[in-house]
């Protein structure tokens, strides 16, 4: 027996719709600004930040895809585009013939070092400056709560 959907009430729907509109507006505006300032797209930034931060410059392909919550095909296309521009390289995994590593190149390190200042300024201008310190704190707590909730309920 199928359970009927639990429809959103007006307050829940308003919260969800506002969140989605805000997210889409930020996701649309921030990458345009970042790329104009540094030549690094939002997707490039996400990959490079994960490689150079969490991965110390090198991660297994599937671990990188999981860390940014992308499908394998999306990661493959992104890594291919970045490799053509010299930002990353692929290396075979000696322990596993089917596995591969994604490695940040010197050009990738340079790009990630140059990208943050304009990106941070746009995040501040479009997001941080719109909220009070207590609102930012509440948003951080709420966001973490949703992330923790999602961890307990995998797809």
From TrEMBL:
* The species this protein was found in: Streptomyces hainanensis
Q: Name one GO biological process term.
A: response to stress
Check the record and name the Gene3D superfamilies matching this protein. Answer: Winged helix-like DNA-binding domain superfamily/Winged helix DNA-binding domain (1.10.10.10)
Protein name from the UniProt record: MarR family transcriptional regulator
Membrane-crossing ranges are none
Where does the HTH marR-type domain lie? 1-148
| Annotated Pfam families | MarR_2
Q: Name one GO molecular function term.
A: DNA-binding transcription factor activity
